[in-house]
Amino acid sequence: MASVNKCILIGNLGADPELRYTPGGQAVCDLRLATSDTFTTKAGEKRTVTEWHKVVVWGKQAENCSKYLSKGRQTYVEGRIKTRTWEDREGVKHYFTEIVAQVVQFLGAAPKKEETAGNVDLANQGDVGEGQDESLDQAVSGA
């Protein structure tokens, strides 16, 4: 039976992008994306709940995110959900879930310090290919 692993998010960046390179020279950019849901309680009080997402972007698309995105910028992300595990020095297993981006679009106006305008579509700039999960595993574990 077929399955689908696809996530679409539109939110605001909670921090500037963090660009790094794997030992093999592949660009990797981490984004912290906030999505919010507003609702009214039974008592009539408005509440907003914010969910934080770790997004990982690869290749040329990662470099462009680092160059053009900044904290507060509204961003569209489309990708797949990935759960990773790692073990600390005490032998405790840790789990975290992230979105491996396949499409990133910059929404809204760019901050004034940038000289880009409008939406920038980076969907076809840099492929999300095989071997990236292994490279990220090495980068995360420090191997």
Task: Explain the overall architecture.
This protein is mainly β and 143 residues long. It has two helices and seven strands, in the order ββββαβββα. The protein has helices at residues 59-68, 132-141, and strands at residues 7-13, 18-21, 27-40, 46-58, 74-87, 93-106, 120-121. The chain has a single domain (7-136), classed as Nucleic acid-binding proteins (OB fold (Dihydrolipoamide Acetyltransferase, E2P), Beta Barrel), CATH 2.40.50.140.
Task: Write a concise keyword list for the protein shown above.
143 residues, mainly beta, OB fold (Dihydrolipoamide Acetyltransferase, E2P), five-stranded mixed barrel, 48% strand, globular, disordered C terminus
Roughly how many Å is the radius of gyration? 17 Å
Shape: globular
Q: Sheet with the most strands?
A: 5 strands, mixed, barrel
The number of helical elements comes to: 2
Order of helices and strands: EEEEHEEEH
Please give the number of β-strands.
Answer: 7
CATH topology, anyone? OB fold (Dihydrolipoamide Acetyltransferase, E2P)
How many structural domains?
A: 1
Indicate the proportion of strand residues.
over 45%
Helix vs. strand class: mainly beta
Which CATH class applies here? Mainly Beta
Uncertain segments are: 114-131, 134-143
CATH architectural designation: Beta Barrel
Helicity, as a percent range: 10-25%
Q: In the CATH hierarchy, what is the superfamily?
A: Nucleic acid-binding proteins
Q: What is the distance, rounded to the nearest whole angstrom, between the alpha carbons of the first and last residues?
A: 36 Å
The average pLDDT value, as a whole number, equals 84
Strand order within the widest sheet? 1-3-4-6-5
